[in-house]
Design goal:
This protein has 6 helices and 7 strands. By secondary structure, the chain is of the alpha/beta class. The protein has one domain: Rossmann fold. Strand 4, helix 4 and strand 5 form a beta-alpha-beta unit. The longest helix is centred in the C-terminal third of the chain and has 22 residues. Bound molecules: zinc ion (ZN). The site of zinc ion (ZN) has 7 residues, from loops.
Length: 244
Amino acid sequence: MPGTTDDIPRRLLVIAAHAGDFVWRSGGAIATAVAAGGEARVVALSYGERGESGELWKVAGQTVEAVKEVRHAEATSAAGILGASFDCLDLGDYPLRFGEEVVDRLRDVVLDFAPHVLLTHTERDPFNPDHPVAHAAVVRARLLATGAGVAGAFPTVPPSALFFFEPHQPERCGFLPDTFLDITPVVDRKIAAMAAFASQSYMGTHYAQRAEHRAWHARYANGDASVRHAEAFQRAVPAVVRQL
Ligand SMILES: [Zn+2]
C-alpha cells in the first residue's frame, strides 16, 4: 500500500530542480529501490546548465546549449548506473521560473507513475534560488494528484510517502533528518553515478563524506555496526505502520 512501510518493491520518483541534484542526495535510495525489485524515475526541471555546471564553464567559448548536452549525457549515464530513467523538462536555471502549467505536468507524472515514495528538496535553501521553487511545485503537484485521501471530482492515485533529501547546507535549510537509509550495499553504484557528473566533481567528494558521517548517526540510532554509508531524509508526511 503506497505510503506505508510494507515490505514491497517501491516505485520511487525523484523530482529536482537541476539535473545533478538527484545523484548526490538520493542516488543510494534510487539504487536501493531498484535492487529490491522496484522502479525509479528521475525528473529534473532544468539541466542546471547556468548555475551548477561549474567545471564546464571553465572552457573558453562555452555555450548554454553545449553545456546542456553534456549535462544530459551525464545525467542519463548516472541514472542508468543507478537503474532509473531520467527526464528533463529543460525549464532553465538560475533562475528557475515557470507557470502553473508545469505543476500540471508534474501532477500528470505523479498520476502516471503512482509512486510509493516521492523525493524532493527542502522548503528552504538560502544557498540556492531554484531548490525552493522546485519544492513548492512538487508539493503542489503531489496534492493535486492525490487529493485529500478521499474520493474527489478528479483522478487521483494513493498518497505517496514524501521525503525531503539532504541539502548541501542542511542546518541553514532547516533540514532535520528523521530517516536514515543504509546505502552500504549500493554505495559503489552511487559513487560511480556521482563520478559520471564530471561537471560538478566537487559534489561527489562532499556527499561521499556526508554518507559516512550520516552512517555514524544511523549507528547511534540502531546500534548496527554494518551501516557504513547512509543517506538522510526528512519525512514530510507521517508514516502509517502496522506496528511500532
Ligand atoms: Zn541543484
